[in-house]
Amino acid sequence: MEKELRVELKGISKSFGRVIANQDVFLKLYSGEILSLLGENGSGKTSLMNVLAGIYYPDEGEIFVNGEKVIISSPSDAYKYHIGMVHQHFKLVDTFTAIENVVIGLNKHDYRAIAEEEGEKYRGFNLKQSAKRMEKMCKQFGFKLDPWKKVSDMVVSEKQTLEIVKALFRGVDILILDEPTAVLTPQEAETLFGVMKNMKMAGKSIIIITHKLNEVLEISDRVAVLCKGKVTGDIMTKDANEEILTEMMVGHKVDLNIDRKDIKNTGVRLEIHDLSAKNREGREVLKNITFELYGSEILGIAGISGSGQKELLETIAGLNKETHGDIIFHNPKKEQPVTFFHKNIKQIRELAKQEKFHLKGQTEPVDLSKYSNKQITEMVKNEEIIFYEDEIMDIKNKKPIEIRDLGIKLSFVPEDRLGMGLVGNMDLIDNMMLRSFRKGKGGMVHREAPKELAEQVVKELEVKTPNLSTSVKKLSGGNIQKVLVGREIASRPKVLMTAYPVRGLDINSSYLIYKLLNKQKEKGTAIIYVGEDLDVILALCDRVLVLREGEISGVLRCKDTNKKEIGLLMTKKKEMTEETANGQ
Amino acid sequence: MFLKIIIDSIRFSAIYLFGSAGETITEKSGHLNLGTPGIVCIGSMGSMIGAYFYISISGGNTIPFLSVLFPLLFCVLFAGLAGALFSFFAVTLNCNQNVTGLALTTFGAGLLPFVASSLDGEVTASFATKIVKPISHLFPKTFYESNWFTQLFFSYGIFVYLGIALAIAIAIFMKKAKTGLFLRTVGENPAAADAAGINVNRYRYLATIVGSAISGIAGLFYTFDFSGSMDTSSLSGYGWLALSLVIFTMWNTELGIAGSFMFAFLYISSKYANSTPAGEQLVSIIPYGATILVLVLSSIFSRKLGKAPAGLGVSYFREDR
User: Fold this and answer.
1) Which of A95, A583, B19, B235 is the residue whose CA sits 20 to 30 A from A572?
2) HSE-up (13 A, CA, CB side) for residue A432
3) Considering only CB atoms, which chain A residues are within 8 Å of B320?
């Protein structure tokens, strides 16, 4: 096919204050091609595309469309040159229907054009006429979308389709997709790729922003790699492979293997039985969740975002009290001495009556009633009173703080990173102290230990910070996350729940986190890993639990499954998966 | 007497209706203009200046039509300017909307008595016959005084009818017109509107100016129709009630007709109530209580009742990251 130059960016620079987003970028886009824009988070992919779509105005540089120099100072200018963008955070009005969202911003000329195309008389603003055109367009490109459906009733993939339809409705020839697959299941991503191929056949050019290498290799014709705001490479996809692309992205070779050791698990750590939970609005967010978590195991949790992942972790951590069912914690105390860490003398006496302890070097249950408090204190300090078995306790009715002290740690990285777990305006030491502020004497806090911890985290995780008294929000996103995850891991947890720990991290840091998690696993920690990237879950975790609308739709061994199977479980109903399971 | 209460309530409701209808337009664009009480005062001030100006240039020979038009034009001009000022701060200078609005309220409420007292007393004394009369009654007295029906429906000034017509027109505009759809988009999700090629700033400026101009008419109505006097001490209080009426009607101006009547009825009946001053005060706080109740109920049943524009009170700057 004859390729003509559609868009050319020459020397584009854009900075926000002192932050340079793009510097002297040159980029070409041809007709009928799919160009991947690859780069790590913060490498300036989205800023560059926002310049092309009229959201940002470049500080320097020129844009040529079809050989002519153009000035794009607003999104409507971009539409004038047939450039449209589907943003990562959809720009839709939730309370409107699909067709209302499509027609917003269209003017008289657009309506006249629609009327002409439909062979009808121009009647001004007319939703029905527009809906007809939209349906026709959906048929042409293979979309499924009801024009009269409200956006608030749509699932994520429908919203994305709507964004694409919105762009096509305006006669867009150059479509920019910003991380389109981040929110999709593998099946939905396949559908999207199909649609993209249809559009390419129709002569449209597509730029897809992504940081997933396999997608780049699957869908695109050409790859442009951005690193620190500059284009560092431009390569035909057929000449590329994962190693080459990573090297272009990061600047040096990165070991892309996650070393999953097969360790025999160290027994049940957490037993969730028939757990249901409601959120603050009273909607049921978890339904009859039953599973077990073992020590020395990484259990992955997969699911479309908002399927109950967050709620499950919060419920275990004791942050949600609207629950039914049991959460049983097996405290690994077998043959371990009792401590005063979360038991007082009265409780120890109580447990001794139930014959839970023996003395060091003996096998008979110890009778503590004949000892005085002072003697018992002495014995505990000398680690003479030993548990027979793991301590089993229902933690459902315990306070979050008690659950934490038992060694069940939650590190949740929310979308805005700072929302939970860290306080942006406080410095590193203070943020470390959020976990230990209760220790200290007479209302004064103890600052030495958190300082050491902060030093340790900064050193081990290579956190880039001027010093320890820098407020956390001034660090870059990746470094903030290292602080958060590092703090939780450093507290030597027995159960570690991490949600999206690598969200927004560059490849290097991501693999650092995976290594840390694996190290914890070797130490016997039971780990729950909630992730978005199924490839990572499959490589890192031992088992994967799939959530669908707050229910478990399947628990699979990572070794024996694949992305497709997980993807199906993410969307299909439970009954159906059981049938297929029986059929196999 | 009951008829009198109803008639007075309908008259009085025009203040709330204009105030809330204007503010609804403003809020639909995403601007939470807490300056409405001040804008109502500025509208009143504008109408006084307009009336003063007209009497001065006409030399006392006034024509009823112009007696209505001049105060209206000046009222709309001044109130619109106040709206433009708000937009300038909120959009162009990217200031906090709440602070800007409150400043505007303080400014307007202070400016009105100052201007009112500095107008020449001889001219203002002639307001009653030359301005108030043509504004406060549309139909001749002999026509409407004949029976209760005509009294109930035809005894008002032009602005009562105008207010109701305007409320219905705004409701239709918001729901059916293309520009109404665009305006709602700007208020719901300015980023989406911008990405779709709508000029967010222009919409916000225009909606706030038009909305403020309409709110300002409430001041004109109070000065030259309802009270007919230069005493405007309680005007900004009505402005606050108009503001809460917007929430009470869930941003529907057609509901504002009934809502403003209800607010007005509670206020007027407290005047007629044969009770202690304390009892009167107690009745007149009912509208505030009702608004709080509606807020609580609406947050419980938010899906069914409809919500505030999602972008309300949020400044929009395209290059924000």
Assistant:
1) A95
2) 27
3) none
